Amino acid sequence: MKKLESREDIELLVNSFYAKVVKDETIGFFFNDIMKVDWDQHLPKMYSFWETILFGQMSYKGNPMAKHFPINHLEAMEKHHFAKWLELWKQTIEENFTGVNASMAITKSENIANLMAYKMEMARKL
Ligand code: HEM
Questions:
Q1: How much is the pLDDT for 44?
Q2: What's the pLDDT at 126?
Q3: What does the record list as coiled-coil region(s) (predicted)?
Q4: Looking at residue 1, what is its pLDDT?
Q5: Separation of 99 CA from ligand 1 center, angstroms?
Q6: 6 pLDDT higher than 90
Q7: Ligand 1 pocket check for 17: Cβ under 6 Å
Q8: Residue 2 — left, alpha, or beta (φ > 0 → left; ψ -120 to 50 → alpha)?
């Protein structure tokens, strides 16, 4: 099994992850129907996002939390959605990579997803 250590590795990881996401019954509709995601725009952002988190490249300049409030407003993003997101992310990593960065990609995603789930829930109560 390979280590997660280059931009090419991240591209493979992100592409394989979203290939699962779009086919998924629990969360696919957020991307396919609710937001009708422009993949040519979204995928490069996600490569940069993970490159920034894992390799400290600072190539991503955005506000991921803020981007999800409008989605949550259209369709509630609930705990079970985040659980599925995390399950697919973890599965994709474990199918392809090993090592410290692979573990870090899992831990970081858990932290962000938990915080995001909490913020989305709070936003729905306002
Ligand atoms: C149920 C869980 C989630 C759903 C349904 C979801 C959905 C989406 C969608 C539809 C977009 C694209 C928005 C657009 O086209 O403008 C997006 C963007 C993004 N998501 Fe998520 N997301 C989820 C969880 C997460 C998590 C856990 C992370 C981080 C670990 C994350 C990171 C991002 C980032 C970085 C962007 C790009 C933001 C930007 O445009 O700068 N998402 N998400």
A1: 97
A2: 85
A3: none
A4: 87
A5: 25
A6: yes
A7: no
A8: beta
Query: Which pLDDT does position 57 carry in this prediction?
Result: 86
Ligand 1 contact via 50 beta carbon (within 6 Å): no
Residue 68: pLDDT over 90 = yes
Is there a contact between 12 and 110 (Cβ–Cβ < 8 Å)? Answer: no
Determine the distance separating the centroid of ligand 1 and the alpha carbon of 123, expressed in angstroms. 16
**Contacts of residue 26, Cβ cutoff 8 Å, sequence gap at least 6:** 80, 81, 84
Task: Determine the Cα–Cα distance for residues 96 and 1; give it in Å rounded to an integer.
Answer: 7
Q: Confirm or reject: Cβ of 109 under 6 Å from ligand 1.
A: yes
pLDDT at 64: 94
The domain of 36 spans 2-125
Establish whether residue 99 lines the binding site of ligand 1, counting it when its CB lies within 6 angstroms of any ligand atom: no
How many domains, the chain?
1
Q: Is 79 in the pocket of ligand 1 (CB under 6 A)?
A: no
Q: Looking at this protein, which amino acid is placed at residue 49?
A: F
The CATH code of the domain that includes 78 is 1.10.490.10
Identify the H or E element spanning 68. Answer: helix 64-74
